[in-house]
Structure of SF3 helicase domain-containing protein:
Amino acid sequence: METFLSQIFPNPDERNYVLEKFAFALNETPATAQFFIFVGNGANGKTTLLKLVSLGFGGYYVEIPVTVFTHQRPAANCPTPEFMAIRGKRVVTCSEANAKDTLNLCTIKCCTGENIMTGRGLFEKRLCTFYPQALFAMSVNQIPTIKSSAEDNGTWRRISHVLFGSTFKENPSDANEF
């Protein structure tokens, strides 16, 4: 495990930063109001890391469709099973957004703030309210569009890019290849 982590995060400060954030997610109220974007070309360990995290967190982990964060929220009277899937989870991930997608900053702020979320499962009549308790991470090859002004501190203090610069190849030849 240590070898893998040092390969995907050669910088010990960056490695400790990511591990610390996942450790905070073990707490019922994580001390992070951040939305992580794990970015890097393929074959760099993003998926493997999230697979390991899912094994470690078990039922407290969920992967949801990326459209939760790239499309508008459904109307209030519509079922929202994707939002209900977040309830009680400690780590929530999604993947495969691309540069043409635009992040829905309202949804990101709602999930990473101390806001009450309201949702309804499929075929359910009653609405359910809850506080999100999770670390949120999106895994991408290209950063999606973020339409926000430089002055929008609410957005920029939440979004944290984590670069996966290593590559796993059959015949590694460069320093960042394994």
